Amino acid sequence: MATTETVTENKTVDQQEDAWSGGKEPFKASYGKLMMWYFLLSDAFTFAGFLISYGALRFSSPSWPVPDFVFSTAPFGIHDAPLIFVTIMSFLLIISSGTMVRAVQEGHRENVRGVVFWLLMTVLGGAGFLGCQAWEWNNLIAAEHMSVTTNPFGTHTVSGEYLEDENGEPYGPNKEREAFEEGESYLIHQHDGEWVQRQFVTEAGLVGEQQFGPKAFGALFFFITGFHGFHVLSGVAFLLIIAINAASGIYARRQNGHEMVEKIGLYWHFVDLVWVFVFLVFYLL
């Protein structure tokens, strides 16, 4: 009896020591992966706050830029092609997510060459996305004159006819005036360093002048897409560092299935997922 109690006590002591040893991984995930999940969760709340703020301002404003009109240009002189360019951007990011999956798979197989190759393919996809975003920003700032404080895009809140053409010159007596409907988009151009705000007459005979669009659009667009672009840029930098480390064999010597590649993969998939929501909010709604 005494022997049985002694054995039971020893087992209890061993179980207590094992419980505090820290050797067991919760949810069968390493400390590094758990910390990555915590970071991604907090980052998700940050992006959610930004996008909810955008939505609140978007649907409380009587006039808001129409995405098909704002994002209708592309390189090589392409115009009136709504969402074509941003679709190419999104395609590059989605493809890079696929190459990231391949890098993780090769890491589980301890295939160093495969890991490095697919990581570099992911880097190319991310760099291509950043290049497209740089062109889009340059076009909106330099060609369309949009900034965080000035938004030349807007929508009409009334129906009527313009009294002046797109250069700010009055229509001749025999020229047909351009008509517009409520809700249609417009763009205020900058001509010779000055903004051209066209005058119009409504169907009720009231004379008015084009007004700039809500300032919040430009500020939120550059801030949120820039914040996401910063995540992509950081991801590209980390991918390059991890690719160099993988090529040196440091992860292969650890014999843990290239866990570091899997952790950066979680981050990269998160960045791609966030872009889906940014794309929906800015380019489709």
Give an account of the 3D structure.
The protein folds into two domains: 31-65 and 92-149 and 220-284, Cytochrome c oxidase, subunit III, four-helix bundle (Four Helix Bundle (Hemerythrin (Met), subunit A)); 153-209, no CATH class. Helix content is 61%, strand content 8%. The protein contains eight helices and eight strands; from the N terminus they run αααααββββββββααα. A hairpin with a 2-residue loop joins strand 5 (189-191) and strand 6. The model has no long low-confidence stretch (mean pLDDT 84).
Summarize the structure.
The protein has helices at 2-19, 31-60, 67-70, 84-108, 112-143, 215-248, 250-254, 259-284; strands spanning 153-155, 160-162, 179-180, 185-187, 189-191, 194-196, 199-202, 207-209. The chain has 285 residues and is of the alpha+beta class. The chain is elongated and about 80 Å long.
Give the arrangement of secondary structure elements.
Elements: H1 2-19, H2 31-60, H3 67-70, H4 84-108, H5 112-143, E1 153-155, E2 160-162, E3 179-180, E4 185-187, E5 189-191, E6 194-196, E7 199-202, E8 207-209, H6 215-248, H7 250-254, H8 259-284
Antiparallel strand pairs: 1-4, 2-3, 2-7, 5-6, 7-8
Helix pairs in contact: 2-6, 2-8, 4-5, 4-8, 5-6, 6-8
Number of strands: 8
- Tell me which CATH architecture of the largest domain applies here: Up-down Bundle
Spatial shape: elongated
Remind me, CATH topology of the largest domain?
A: Four Helix Bundle (Hemerythrin (Met), subunit A)
Helical residue percent?
Answer: 55-70%
Report the mean per-residue pLDDT as an integer. 84
Strand composition percent: 5-15%
